[in-house]
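Response to reviewer comment R2.3. The reviewers asked that we include at least one raw input/output pair. We reproduce the pair for Lipid II isoglutaminyl synthase (glutamine-hydrolyzing) subunit GatD here without editing.
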Amino acid sequence: MSTLSNPTPGRDSVIHIGALLPDIMSTYGDDGNALVLRERLRRRGYQAEIVRITLQDEVPSSCDIYTMGGGEDVAQILASQHLRTHRGLFTAVEAGRPLLAICAGVQLLGEWFQVADGSHAEGVGLLDATTVPQATRSIGELVGTPVVEGLTEPLTGFENHMGATVLGPDARPLSRVKYGVGNSVPAGSAVPDTGLVDGVVQGSIVATYMHGPCLARNPQLADYLVAQVLGVPAAELEPLEIPAITLLRKERLAAAKHPFKRTA
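Raw output as returned:
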């Protein structure tokens, strides 16, 4: 693995993709995000391997990029405890290593999240965000317009969650919601005039409620992360033409039939 003092891997070194806690945090095929990153790196001539980091493992700080998927309340609590105890992820994020987190990963990386009995479970604290229940469960297609520099294509995924994630001043959203609810709003709260947003971007962390797997549906976002790993602008990456991905995006974007409408 590349060292923290030399974070940009070359073609003669192996890029390590840390799949965080896939034994408990990988609902709806979220472990596919690590596979997408590996494949897009390999197609460009880089050596890349996935490192599975389970509850039985220390969390290494030396991976070049990390991914984490979703899970239910008990899994979130276990994951938060493990990541706070084995603090390699803190070191990696502080060094600028990219981290992609999906759904429950959004919630547990925040300061705290509310669980089914109404109590607040301690989060990892890497994101300036908190999560409480929304009024009803969100299930369906999620489409957003990115608000992060370097991302221009619509973001698409599948959401299934009860959480309403509130961002603090140090966090910013990944996209503005066109279809679905994304971060939503807490039960009893009004939707802001600016509409709903999805995800959290803070430092080297990108988090979103989009399953799919997210990176299989969103190659531009995948390359946004790949470019950070390689230390180059995304525009300088060799283009990858994968017809199956083009067809997948077309089909999934067409499947989103219910644009969000703010009610009084």
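Residues 28 and 211 are 7 Å apart (CA to CA). The radius of gyration is 17 Å. Further pairs are available on request from the corresponding author.
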